[in-house]
Amino acid sequence: MSDEHPSPADQLGTAENSGQSGAAERGKPPVGRRFEKGKSANPGGRPKEYKEFMAMTREASITALTKVKLLMLKGRSEAVQLRAAEIIIERAWGKASQPVTGADGGPLDVRFRGAARAVLEAALLSSDASTNPDLGEAG
Predict the structure, then answer these.
(1) The dihedral sign for the CA sequence 60, 63, 64, 65
(2) Taking the chain, what is the end-to-end CA distance rounded to the nearest angstrom?
(3) Fewer CB atoms inside 10 Å of the end CB: C or N, the chain?
(4) What are the tens digits of pLDDT across the range 35-84?
(5) pTM score, two decimals?
(6) Model confidence pLDDT, tens digit, residues 120-132
(7) What is the DSSP string of the chain?
């Protein structure tokens, strides 16, 4: 592949193209890009504004719930009343689970064409071509 158009694996930042020795572990960034142990990724913590915002929204939630309850009881249409009831139930008990199954009721057959190709290319690029010249066999 030419240098003008890097492959998806090149764009992933594998150990080979990051200048680091050793392969990146699955699900982790390349070795040179990991955080140092004992150092926070967010040393300042959450901003003060976030805490103020959460306090304000919690104060307003009582008024909002009162409004939704009023709509449930006295909404001008049945659709409004039903939606208000759904909102209250979902907030109190959580949304009902919706299992996902395949056409025959069995598990879904999911194929990740683009992602799988990038992972395969990354694995092939990180293997040593001198010990596995055709890259078609496990080396």
Answers:
(1) positive
(2) 22
(3) N
(4) 777 777 777 777 888 889 999 999 999 999 999 999 999 999 999 999 99
(5) 0.40
(6) 777 778 765 545 5
(7) --SSS--HHHHHT-TTTTT-SSPPPTTS--GGGSPPTT--SSTT-S-HHHHHHHHHHHHHHHHHHHHHHHHHHH-SSHHHHHHHHHHHHHHHH-PPP-----TTSS------HHHHHHHHHHHHHHS-TTTSTTSSS--
